[in-house]
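Need tokens for this chain, all 315 residues.
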Amino acid sequence: MKKWFSPAHFLVTLWLFTESDFATFVIPDTAFGIFGALAGPLLTTNSSPHPGIILSRLPQVLLFNWANLLIFDLANQSHPTAVIEDALNKPWRPLPTGRITVTETRRLLLFALPVVLVVNWILGAWEETILLFALNWMYNDLEGGDQDFVTRNLILGVGFGLYNRGALRIACGGGHEITRLGYQWIALISCVIFTTMQVQDMKDQEGDRARGRRTVPLILGDWTARWTIAVPVLTWSIICPLFLGLGFLGYLATGGFGIVIAWRLLLLQNVQADQKTWKFWSAWIALLYLLPLLKNKSFIDECIRFTWRRALGSI
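Here are the structure tokens for all 315 residues:
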């Protein structure tokens, strides 16, 4: 029996397919759902969300995001040119290290597709899952992620919108719907992704060049590409708090991180710095996802009272 069929080896292999994307995709998209549900009537029809109930759905939201990410990564990393790219950019992944073959990965994908669909039908987000499967096909099999950076960012922007919609639906629970403002917020975040997602390409230029991808830094040049990220990041850092009608705290959180990202992009120009800037961008996205929660004054007041009681209790 092949080693990867042992349960421990199999689970580690699944994790390695998604490991490099977990902190930058699963965690922020899960945060979108949880924070949005806690924001109450701003984004959902739940006028008085209970924090304990919302947080109890955290494992379900994580499962939805991770399972769909797994489908994407299995399809993406088993593409012939992806193996070449990963050998340069991410040599620890299962295919470059020989933990699993391309044929075995494609068979695993065939098995995982119906399983993930059933799981997300149980979770209540099967519509988003089906649409994500279609986007995966467009991005990977039709090479929408390789041929044109505008098409690539558009697919990713729509994909993030579906991840966020599914996460919010699961987090707010059955019996509650996303409000009109909630859908507008999801669309606004998709626009943020569409105009800034090329930040991940800055650190992967060597592998993308070997794969023949037409990414922003390879087509427009490294310096120009950095400006195409820095300017939108600073712009969205103002627009997003403005859209939600937030005060100084909202602008301070996103604007401060936005300035750091722009500074790093323009002044720290090497692979190691770009890898860290990508993580800063992911944290900035998570901060944007937190903004609706700042509108829930009762929740913020309760957090302050809880913190104050804990501080007094420790004296």
